[in-house]
Amino acid sequence: MKICVPATSANLGPGFDSCGVALSSYLTIEIIEEDTKWTVDHELGDAIPHDEQNLLIQTAQQVAPGLKPQHLKMTSSIPIARGLGSSSSIIVAGIELANRLENLNLTERQKIEIATSIEGHPDNCAPAICGDFVVASYFFNQNKPTIHYVKHYFPECQIIAYIPHSQVLTKESRSVLPETLSFEEAVKASSIANVMIAAVLNGDLRLAGKMMEQDRWHEAYRQEFVPHLATIREIVKRNEGYAAFLSGAGPTVLILTSEEKSDLITFELEQMEGSAQIEQLSVDREGVQVF
Ligand SMILES: Nc1ncnc2c1ncn2[C@@H]1O[C@H](COP(=O)(O)OP(=O)(O)OP(=O)(O)O)[C@@H](O)[C@H]1O
Ligand SMILES: N[C@@H](CCO)C(=O)O
Questions:
Q1: Which positions does UniProt annotate for ATP binding (predicted)?
Q2: Of all residues in the chain, what percent carry a pLDDT higher than 70?
Q3: What pTM does this model have?
Q4: CATH among 3.40.50.10330, 3.30.230.10, 3.30.470.20, 3.40.50.720 for 2-152+286-290
Q5: How far is residue 194's CA from residue 209's CA, in Å, rounded to a whole number?
Q6: Annotation-wise, does 241 bind a ligand?
Q7: Inter-residue contact 221 to 250 (CB < 8 Å)
Q8: Using a 6 Å cutoff on CB, does residue 10 contact ligand 1?
């Protein structure tokens, strides 16, 4: 059995902690055999545990405490701590691992609820589970966690990810956010997000892109982690791309463009100073899959 989970890009500018899109880069978990202890074979570096300390196993055990240990193989093309949902991908894989090994028959909603309670916000894990574009809300109502979510088709476009080689942990990137915003500022920020979402639903990426670049919730506070964002925005604007915005907590910047502008924008990104990997991606429409 193989579990395959897509990368995700959260926020899309003003959809902070709420909107996300699944992308064509994947984490794959393969069950090799039942064993006497948990082992995770991977080549993702020394910081990622090979034993039951791995977040994959921790999550699976949280969902199904009596799980029998397995020998697993993990491969991933989702870079860690770059803003492409690596932590959500592993949490979603852990939930699916427990689901399949214990025949729990978890529904899509139950998986989203579990993943969100671990991750703290639904904008990466919901699209990792559902695929495509997901808008979600998560709040506590009389101490009860409440989730609402809607999956919708994301318009066809070219997606370019500018992925710096340096890592930024979500925790670190959230620590610079303000604790409060004024009522006036919150109304502005929310109206921009509303138009962004409505434009995506209408298939109007030109308008959606304008709104994606007008975020007022988080990007301004995170500038220290993304000194490259301003230059990328100039390149995208000059070449009439749709938008460039911080992917999740950064430092990756996601660029949306039409097919005809994609090669030129990619070429200009490659000429930029600094070390980054540039990948052309597409929208994953399926979410987590088991083969
Ligand atoms: N394949 C993996 N196996 C085990 N743990 C992982 C794996 N991938 C990510 N993690 C854990 O998730 C952490 C990174 O999560 P973090 O939320 O900081 O970044 P991200 O999910 O890549 O970015 P973002 O949430 O902004 O999209 C890693 O430090 C590690 O603890
Ligand atoms: N909405 C989250 C996504 C990263 O986990 C953030 O921007 O901090």
A1: 79-89
A2: 100
A3: 0.96
A4: 3.30.230.10
A5: 13
A6: no
A7: no
A8: yes
